[in-house]
TrEMBL record:
It comes from Genlisea aurea. Residues 67-184 form the Ig-like domain. Pfam families: TAXi_C (PF14541), TAXi_N (PF14543). Residues 1-25 are annotated as: Disordered. Keywords: Aspartyl protease, Glycoprotein, Hydrolase, Protease. The keyword Hydrolase applies. This is Peptidase A1 domain-containing protein. Belongs to the peptidase A1 family. Residues 57-412 form the Peptidase A1 domain.
Amino acid sequence: ILSRRTFLSLSSSSSSSSSGLPSRDSSRIPLILVLPLKTQVIQSAPSELPFTHNVTLTISLAVGTPPQNVTMVLDTGSELSWLQCNATGFKRPVFKWNSSSSYIPVDCSSPTCTTQTRDLSIPASCDSKNFCHTVLSYADASSSEGNLAVDNFTFSGSKFPRTIFGCMDSGFSSDAEEDSKTTGLMGMNRGSLSFISQMGFKKFSYCISGSDRSGILVFGESNFTGLNYTSLIEISTPLPYFNRAAYTVQLEGIKVAETSLQLPKSIFEPDHTGAGQTMVDSGTQFTLLLGPAYTALRNEFAKQTGGVLRVFEDPDFVFQGAFDLCFRISKNATAAPELPAVGLLFRGAEITVTGERLLFPVAGEERGNDSIHCFTFGNSELLGIEAYIIGHHHQQNTWMEFDLEKSRIGVASVRCDLAGQRFGM
C-alpha cells in the first residue's frame, strides 16, 4: 500500500480467553451489518460507523474494556490490523492496552503466532518476554513493530471478542501529519489474520462517495443487483513478488475515450517471479501502472487533451514520486475542461474513470495565476513497485463487492451518496 487512513465509533464487550487465542462462534455471526459512511469526520454515537476519505479512508471504533475510541485506516491491501500502543515519540492517538482488562498478549509458541502469521511478509518472532513479535513494512517506506494481542472489538451493535491485532510500540511514518489523525490500520485482505477473515463474513461491500457526500460499508450479503464480476487470480505456488493474500484481478486493457491502447496482453500478466499482478487496494489513493502501460496511457491522454489542457513543463516536478503528467489550469477558469474517460478493462468487468477523478489539484503548488493539477494515474516503477494497483480514488461512485466465498469482485457504477437509501439510511 502507499497511503493509509479510515474511522469507526464502537463499544466493546468484556470477554477474554485464558489462551489468548481467538474463539469465534459462527452461529453468532450476523447475516449482515450495514454501516453509514461519511466523507467528513464527525462525532457519532457508538452504534454508528462514519467512513471518511480525503487522501485516505478512515474508520472510528472502540476497543478494549472499558472501550477506548480509536481511529483506523481501512485497507484491503494488507492483512494484520494494528493499533499504536506507545505514546513515546509519536504524535498520534494511542490504544492504552494496560487500561483494558480484556487485553491479552499472544504467546510466541501459540498456533496464532506459529501458523496464522505465515502470510506476513516478515516472519513473526519471540521477544524477551516470550510474546509474539511482528514487524510490518509498507510500500511507502513506513513501518510498524510490536506484539500480537487479542482484545474485544464491537461495531454496529455486534460484539467480536478475542480479535487478533498488533499492539505496536515503534515504527516509521512517511506522512506524520496524516498518521497523527489515526490510531492504526484495519487490514482487510484475504489473509487468515485479516479483520474480515476473523469476523467470519464471506462478503463485504463498500461504496466511496465524492467529497462531502455519504456512502456505505456493508459486511455480509448486500443483495446489490447489476454487478459485473471479475474473478480473483490465485497462484498456489509461492512466488517472491506475488502477494497471495491480495485481491488480485486480471487487467486486460486500457482505453482513453474510444481509443484502446495498443499493448500486448502479456504486459498485464504476472511474470515467473509473480511481479506484475493487479491488486485492488483501498489503502492506496490513486492508481499505479507498470512503466510500459503507464507511458502508453500518459501519451494518449496528453494527446487527446492537447486542445483543452496545458502541460506543466517541469521535468523535476513529480507529484508523490510517481505522477509526472501535470497541467497548469487557470484559477479564473469558470468551468472544468471536458476530459476523455479512462477505462480499466478487467476480465468480465470495467471501471470507468471520468471528470474530476482524472485530475488532482496539488496543494500549495501555483505558477502565476495557474494551479497545478496532476493526472491521477502514476508509474509504479518510479516507486520501485512491480505491480498494478487500483486505488480508492478510482473506486469512487462504484459499488465494490468483495465475494470471498466465490473468489470474485463485483463492480457497478452507482451514486454512492444515494446507495444507503436502499438500506433505510
